[in-house]
Structures are given as structure tokens and as C-alpha cells.
Amino acid sequence: xxxxxxxxxxxxVRDGGLMNKWQFSDNFVRGVYNACVEAGIDYMEIGxxxxxxxxxxxxxxxxxxxxxxxxxxxxxxxxTNLKLSAMADIGRIELDDIxxxxxxxxxxxxxxxxxxxxxxxxALAHHCMxxxxxVCINLMAVSTVNEHELDEAxxxxxxxxxxxxxxxxxxxxxYVESIQHLVRKYIxxxxxxxxxxxxxxxxxxxxxxTYTAIMEGCTMLDATLMGLGRGAGNCPxxxxxxxxxxxxxxxxxxxxxxxxxxxxxxxxxxxGYHIPYLISGALNAHPRRSLEWMDSDKKNxxxxxxxxxxxxxxxx
Amino acid sequence: xxxxxxxxxxxxVRDGGLMNKWQFSDNFVRGVYNACVEAGIDYMEIGxxxxxxxxxxxxxxxxxxxxxxxxxxxxxxxxTNLKLSAMADIGRIELDDIxxxxxxxxxxxxxxxxxxxxxxxxALAHHCMxxxxxVCINLMAVSTVNEHELDEAxxxxxxxxxxxxxxxxxxxxxYVESIQHLVRKYIxxxxxxxxxxxxxxxxxxxxxxTYTAIMEGCTMLDATLMGLGRGAGNCPxxxxxxxxxxxxxxxxxxxxxxxxxxxxxxxxxxxGYHIPYLISGALNAHPRRSLEWMDSDKKNxxxxxxxxxxxxxxxx
Lengths: 316, 316
Prior knowledge:
Two copies of one chain form a homodimer.
Chain A (H helix, E strand, L loop, with lengths): L6 E4 L1 H5 L9 H14 L3 E6 L19 H8 L7 E7 L18 E6 L4 H13 L3 E6 L7 H13 L4 E5 L7 H14 L4 E5 L7 H11 L3 E4 L13 H8 L7 H11 L12 H8 L5 H7 L7 H14 L1
Parallel strand pairs in A: 1-2, 1-8, 2-3, 3-4, 4-5, 5-6, 6-7, 7-8
Helix pairs in contact in A: 2-9, 6-7, 10-11, 10-12
């Protein structure tokens, strides 16, 4: 399945950091970086750009902030073909905290927003473009957005200078047909722009939804090593690369870093398919409650969680 | 997604038993049975019909044989709407060992065969029908069968009295398009017959492939609790039931038995997505070597396994 225009973005550190407040060892992050370089991955999202006023550095690790000194410690001048990305949430970064691209190891900034923040996201994206970065906008939690609001948001994106826009299944609640519908809608509304896919695995559909998105014309593909990411995690990059069979990618360096760093992390972080995540995904609910449940001593009481979620959903 | 004709078959004990030689406690099997009854599941495959001459009873548990006395201990007279099934492998059961359906708690016998055994499978299936059973034929490892051989096999099935025929992704090596192609082929070749799907999860495609099969017209759906099954396991029945939203099914009894019996089994049986299973699936190879690897002290040396498998595949 060879499509020359496909680009793969590893989000292991950025999305996985949601599970450990980005408290990864330098060896872990360097291992992921080196593996991505050797495997021919196109982009690595190494963390978030956040204001130190918004988050406490004694609680959050360096990849919540992605300061240049931390980046340099891992990637030096990054004289490789791997591009580096960081995500910025609306309202959690101040414009003056974003360095010029020429002074940063970052190549891309991805602006994450909810549907009511699209105008702010476009403004931030334009600001980043003016500083020399590639940009994307990732519209989160789209499974809860009504069609009319989404159409309005797409008009704003279409009118912007932003070249790449992401279909994001934040809640892991989408199946083949909902992905097809969404990607077709994005492609029709955004002629000339590139569409990306970011999937979550609550219903074990992350790889399949990425596959569907490719078939529908998505060319920017998010994935993480062993699916490491929030809650049920993401599309596993090793499955994606094995599927793509694209000569520019190599599977073995990914298996090596999984073996050395990611698989052992399972003893510290309990990401992946678990029943509470299935329940929140199937109910199209934010994973917040399932994450709290998994952090509690009731984590294996699936029946009570289902009943509580069901009652909450009906009341909401 | 309501299709009245859909029937779900729980294969937890039968396929899961491949991982522990069917050494399940009676409480486990009874728990699965009761949950299937309460959840409105249509069929439960409780094990294999095998000759005691072919397998040692001191090694293999009762569900390798499914004797009437063992069945009765769990299900009594099974005065429920749940039908019971057992699988029979060609060459591992003698005709005289199969009781009349009227004398058995079993309602269905599913004949599993490879493509060169289709004639024998039809003969065994007809024998079982004449004894009063419902039957299916499950053609295994179809991902390795060439198109011409498959066409010949389908002619034999079409000419038989067998009403149900299964698409079986034994190696977990199929993606959306291969499932679509296969199911369309089966439906076209077998007018008036029912088509089933049995998926494996090596590439985290089992739920998705089951979904695709439904969309293409499959109506008999195999699944297991938490995907418990050989190697990477099967389509998780709790995800399937959550997706189907069919009023005849209930999710909560399934979550209860998962909580009480299946999830705790994870400390004894290491089924589910693991890198060695991904590798064998992606290479369209029998899971034998990946199962051996997972049973060895090298189980987490993914790189060596990949290299060995790759060398083997090239040499074969």
C-alpha cells in the first residue's frame, strides 16, 4: 500500500506524557527520537508548548514545555530528516513564549482546539507560521460537535492560511463509517489542504480508523509506539508501519525501542485497551472519568463503573 | 446498527482453551454460560469434539472432548435460548463418538477444515446434520489459500446441504479490503447460505474486520470475552455487543463475568496483542512460532524474533 504523499507522525512522548505528566527519562525520549530517525518516520511530536505560568515545573516534566535547552539536550541541532513538532493548546501558551523557528529545534507547531476556539486556533497558527513554523490545527472531540457548528469551523479553516487540518477522535468513539463521513466532509470543505488522522483505541478501532482515513485520502497519520497514549492509547505505530509497507519506513528500529524502552514502561503506566475506556468510548464520553476510575482502587469493578457512567449520561 | 438476522457466537472457552489446554474450572465455564444466557447471546461454543484416542485426558481438560456428562454438569438440560456448539477438527473425531443430537446438550457442530479437507468437512457436516445438529463449516487459514483452490472449495460448499460457512482469519493477517473481498466472494458463490466471520487480533483488526464483515452481509459473528483466544485472541465480545446496540443483547452480564472470571485470568494466560503476534500476522504466518516465542524466556526480544521470522519466511 504505497502512497508517496503519506507522512507519519510519532506522538509517543506528547500523547504518552498525558499518562505520566511527561516525566520521561532523557534516555527514553532519546531512544524514541533515534528510533524515529532510523525508521524514517517523518515527524516526531516531542511534547507540548506550554507557559510555565500555567503549569508547575516541579510537577510536569520538560516535555510539557519543550524549551530549547531541553530539546537541544536530546536532539542537538537535529541534523536529520526527522522533523520535530510540539502541540500548543489554546489559552495555555503566550505568544511571546514561542521562539522564532530559526531559534528552535522545532519544525512544526500543532494547535489543538475545541470547536468554539477555532478562530483563536487560526490566529495562533498564523502567528506560528509568521515565526517560520509549519502548522496544523487539530480539532479535538469532534464526535461531540454538531454538524452545523462543524461546517462553520470548516469555513474558517478553509479561509485560513493553515495547510493541514486533523480529524481527531479524542474519545475513541468512532467507527469506520463515522471516520469515512468525517474525512470526506473535511476533504470536500478544504480543497487543497492536507487532512490528518489522530485516533484513540477505546474500542480497538484506532488502527482500523487510521486505515479507513488513509483510504479516504488522509495523508498525515498520527501513531505512537505500542499505542502509548492517554487512556486506551493511540494507533500503534508498529502496526501502521507494518501495514504501509512503504520503502521509506523501517520496522526494526521501532521494535528495538519498543523492546528497550516502551514495553518495559508497561509496569509503570497502564495504558491500552481496558474495559473502563471501552465504556467511555462507547458512550462518546470524555475519558476523564474512566481515567479517574483506572487510577482508583475500584479500577477492576467494571460493572459499577458502567452503571455510574450510564446514570451520569442519562442525567447529563 | 440493528440487523435482526445477526447472531453472535461466544467462543471464549473453545478458542481460549487453545491457550490452556481447556483446563478451565467449572466455575469459569459456568460463569461464561450464565453470562451468555443473561446477555442474550445466541450461541456458545463450549469446546471441541475430539476422540479420546487422539488426546490424553490427563493433559487436556473436559472441553477438548465435550462429553455429555461434562456438559450436563455445567448446563443441566440447558433450558434456555442459548444454543451450544462444539467444534470438530477433521481427523480428530470418529463418527461413532458423535452422539445423536437428541441425546446431547449440543445444538450445533462446527466443522473446521483446511482447504484440502473441504470434501471431508462436507461429509462430516452431513453426518452431523443427519444426527440432528445444526452445522457450520469453518475454512481455516484462508489468507494462504490461492484463489483457484478457494473457488473449487466454494463449489463443493455450494453443492452441499451445509447452510453456514465461515470466513476465518486464522493468522490475523487480514485488513478491511481483504475481508471485503473474501466475504463478497463467499456471498456471491453461496447464494442462500449464511456467512460467518471469525477474526484474530494480531494487528488489532479483529473488531474492525468483524465490523466490515457485518457491513458486507455476514450474520454469524464469532467473538470472545476480552478477546480471550489463541495468541492475539479474537474479536472482544463486549466491544461487539456495545457496537451492535441490538435490543436483544445486554452488555452488563458480559462485564460481570469479565470482572469475575476473565480479567483475573490475565495473570495465568498471556493472550492479546503482543509484538510477536503482530509479526506473524503481518507476515501471514501460522501463529505457531509466535506462540512458542511467547512461551520462551526470549518472549520480549522482539527484534530477534522479527529477524528469525523474516529469515524463515524468505527461505520457505
